[in-house]
Amino acid sequence: MLSKILVKSKLYIVGVSAGPDSLFLLDNLRKAAYRVIVAHVNYKKRAESDQEEELVKNYCQKYSLPYEIYPVQGLEYNSVSNFQDRARKIRYDFFQKLAQKYQTKYIVVAHHFDDHLETYLLQKQRKSLVDYWGLPIKTKQEKYWILRPLLNLSKQQIFHYLAAQKITYATDQTNQLPIYQRNIIRQKLNNLSSGGKTNLAQEIKEKNQALSKIKILVKLAMKNLINSTHILQLEKEKKYSSEVYLRLLYIWINQATNGVLQQRKKQLLAEVYKQLFTSKKTSLSIELGSNFRIVKGNNQAVILPKNK
Predict the structure, then answer these.
(1) Are residues 34 and 171 in the same domain?
(2) Rounded to an integer, what distance in angstroms lies between the CA atom of residue 151 and that of residue 197?
(3) Cα–Cα distance, 147 to 241 (Å, whole number)
(4) pLDDT band for position 237 (50/70/90)?
(5) What letter would DSSP give residue 278?
(6) Is position 2 within any domain?
(7) pTM, full prediction
(8) Are strands 106-108 and 11-15 parallel, antiparallel or unpaired?
(9) Has residue 113 been placed in a domain?
(10) SS3 call for 7
(11) Looking at residue 238, which CATH number applies to its domain?
(12) Distance in angstroms (rounded) separating the CA atoms of residues 254 and 260
């Protein structure tokens, strides 16, 4: 059932939440005799959190699997407005620390086909410049690889397996509440037919094929227009699509500022693109956060600290 992305000789940190997806993943990894370290994060946010931790512990102890538990302190997320984003950072920071501890570069998570579709719809809604539409089978995160061997399996297939194997799992009731945008999208997908999901998957495939071609053009544009880290040449006649220029600007700005743009918001980049490539003004200044600015003039744009 697992994709062929995994190799028996490697050691894997496996994220296990006690939910159906991750327990399906863990059970299949165990049966296939993969070498794993189970990683569970207890956010201490719901009444069931400790029960879910015990479920993971019991499974690991039953089959003599090594495991690590991270109990999150309330101070780590109480002051943030977006709990899901903070929880994800806490989770992956923990996975990476374990990967370093056990001297491996591989982290395995239980994202499946339905997650792939959800992510795509969420990306479209956010209107950001994505690096990949939906979820890739593997992602490089610093020096570690995030692997997703379940992307070819649906949620329904996972439930059927767990029922047949009589595996107990936890259900997070907050996943059904329309309190997070992803939950709202998930509910819409639940009402989509199998044919509708297949069409959506094909749409994602075609978008990623088009994106691959755009990335090639972005590399070409970078070679032609970026003379040095802080200087971008401005063409009198545009040779590329706006999508290429938006991605070029994102890369150029982050390289010159050591990552001032944390998110690929099209709205911000579109305004910079407009001022640099379509505005008739030959000289202007664009604010980039509190520390940098872009200065346009002499057929080029330069990124400078604000104190210069």
Answers:
(1) yes
(2) 13
(3) 33
(4) confident
(5) I
(6) no
(7) 0.88
(8) parallel
(9) yes
(10) coil
(11) 1.20.59
(12) 6
Residues 148 and 257 in one domain: no
CA-CA distance, 48 to 90, in Å (whole number)?
A: 19
pLDDT per position as a tens digit, 72-122:
987 767 766 677 888 899 999 999 999 999 999 999 999 999 999 999 999
Residue 251's domain spans which residues? 203-305
Token match 């037919």: residue? 193
The string of pLDDT tens digits covering residues 180-206 is 677 788 888 888 899 999 999 999 999
Our count of domains for the chain comes to 2
Structure-token match 């992510």, residue found: 119
Reported as a single tens digit per residue, the pLDDT across 57-78 is 999 999 999 999 999 987 767 7
Amino acid at residue number 180:
Y
SS3 annotation, 190-208: HCCCHHHHHHHHHHHHHHH
Write phi, then psi, for 189 (nearest 5 degrees): -65, -35
Query: What is the CATH number for 173?
Result: 3.40.50.620
Examine residue 197 and state whether it is found in any structural domain, yes or no: no
For 134, left (φ over 0), alpha (ψ -120 to 50), or beta? left
CB of 15 closer than 8 Å to CB of 144: no
CA distance 96 to 104: 9
| Chain mean pLDDT for the chain | 91
- 10 token code pair: 């490697």
Q: Cite the DSSP H helix spans in 166-193.
A: 181-190
| pLDDT number for residue 200 | 96
Inter-CA distances, 232 with 32, 250, 255, 304, Å: 52, 12, 12, 12
